[in-house]
Batch of 3 targets.
Target 1
Amino acid sequence: MARPDKAAAVAELTGEFRESNGAVLTEYRGLTVAQITELRRSLGQSARFRIVKNTLTKIAVTEAGVDEQVKDLLV
């Protein structure tokens, strides 16, 4: 991913963390495509499921000011 793409992704994530009432961080490895699709459907219209690199997420939560709540979860 090129730097402008990374910067845009971080900016989008930062906005989502700032505007969100909550976030659920999960480990998705080991799930099949069918299981991930079912998870996305079960979340409904008001939630989003995204796969994001830990590094970009760490930057976004720091910029959003919520790093204290989630920094230990991003390993």
Target 2
Amino acid sequence: MHARSDADWLDAAAKLAARARPLSRPNPSVGAIVVKDGRVLGRGWTMPGGRPHAEAIALTQAGPDAKGATLYSTLEPCAHASPRGPACADLCSAAGLARVVTGLEDPDTRTAGAGITRMIAAGVEVTLIDRNAVRSSLAGYVTRASCGRPHVTLKLATSLDGCIALENGESRWITGEDARLHVHSRRSMADAILVGGETWRSDRPSLDVRLPGLEARSPRRFVLTRKAAPEGVKAIDSPSGIHQLADVQYLYVEGGAQTAAAFLQDDLVDTLHLYQAPLLIGAGRHALGDIGLSHLDAAHGRWACSDSRQLGSDRFTAYERTRST
């Protein structure tokens, strides 16, 4: 059995970070592991509400044994103190760590490299390693910081011929139970969920999480509409309105067709989740309206497959945006 590399440990920390999402808001979901001689001494992820931080939890678990160890943290340890706890860069220095390996410099201007500088000044070796798993685990935080909006996942559930409903509007259920349960697991990782006004008025979807033990992770509900906000949900009047959702890092968009097209046309979709059922509908309602595509060349190279798996009789595929329109 081969020894784990720095990259392996960072990837493991990224998996821990997923446990914090989305309850760590407004803070990022960070994972951290303290390792010495190949043995895990402590591990942690950001707690609900943002504190304690992942590094603080991992170091507390490691205790005095953290001296001479390596801390793997998906995000640069913070350099700013809070009424709820000291700066993690100071904790790392005080613990006597030999090394800190991190996957991303914190874009928060209160840290932005200052944590790394402070640890190096205290004699801690710091290594920065770029990992896809780390960037994916912090996608909402980074998108919020760099674009001023949430990271957007667009979910489509279609037949083999790209329909989301019969011509008369009947759509329950195109996909099977396994796929629907998977959708609920994705909802549980989002801060907010959005559908179009027509979908809301015709279906009144609950848009909650119905998985045992995860019901409290149901996202806030939004409707894309220029009309007054329906009871129990909030309204935005255009896709660009998501820039005003300051406390939302991850937005899950479930359609319908015109809403999906509007987000794609405005280049506001970062991830596509496609659930495809093994059935043909023919003259049905298609998954997308006009997205403003005038040349086929412009459609190529825009998306890259990041995951694909079978869910019962249905196929799930995830795509990440590789370039803007």
Target 3
Amino acid sequence: MEAIAKVSSIFIYPIKSCRAISVSHATLTATGFRWDRNWLVVNDKGRAYTQRVEPKLALVQVELPLEAFSDTWEPSSNSYMVIKAPGMGVLNIPLTKPQEVTSGVSVWEWSGSALDEGAEAAKWFSDYIGKPSRLVRFNTASETRPVDPDYARGHNVMFADLFPYMLISQGSLDALNKLLKEPVPINRFRPNILVNGCEPFSEDLWTEVRINNSMFQSVRLCSRCKIPTIDQDTAIQGSEPNKTLMEIRSDKVLRPNKKQQGKIYFGQNLVWKDDNSEGGNIVNVGDPVFILKQVPSAADAVV
């Protein structure tokens, strides 16, 4: 079987709605890449902050130790996540798990307990956002957050919006950018996996994907909120690219004979199928992408 594309970039977002880390390889877990959306900024009621309401989160830069992306590495007492933002001092968060548990944390429909990263982190984010805030970490010891069982029964995420993985092709981005007065970078769409070498929007059709030796199941096309309209370098919101996407990537365009929801789609959500397989737990930039199953058209894709 011939590869249809190659992995060109891998992105991990340790803190939900904050900046990505671009890496050369990443460890697969059932809930997403290791470290992806493990942390969350919440308000004084425990409700998640995202760029939808706090676009300044786009400017929060996150760094992890290079060795953290090895599948066998475990943090020590000297291992930190480093957080920076304009006008702020550097915040160091120990990667060893905090002991304090806080209840009443909520993301969309889910609520549960989380690990609280303490007063220094709370003050840093409160000062930066200008509202009472705390930084919390997903409590894997006691909590699970199932995805919508109508799409991927038995799969879970940490603080990601809906599903563990999201893939976009460079061809799709290039096709969109040809229609925009000002091209947008891939960071507007916050994928985990960017692939290159395939036709624009061909990822719409993929239902079973193998990246090197790892098997993924496509779950549904990724419907987009307003975050792609937020410039990730300035945190300023505009109308594009969503205005153009509504013209070329709405359900009205892609699925004219089916029920309309007024949504726009860009990218494909995935779950990792073989999370117990031996030797298949790393994705690397340059890995070949094979398509094992696909649907005939975007109108046949799950949304």
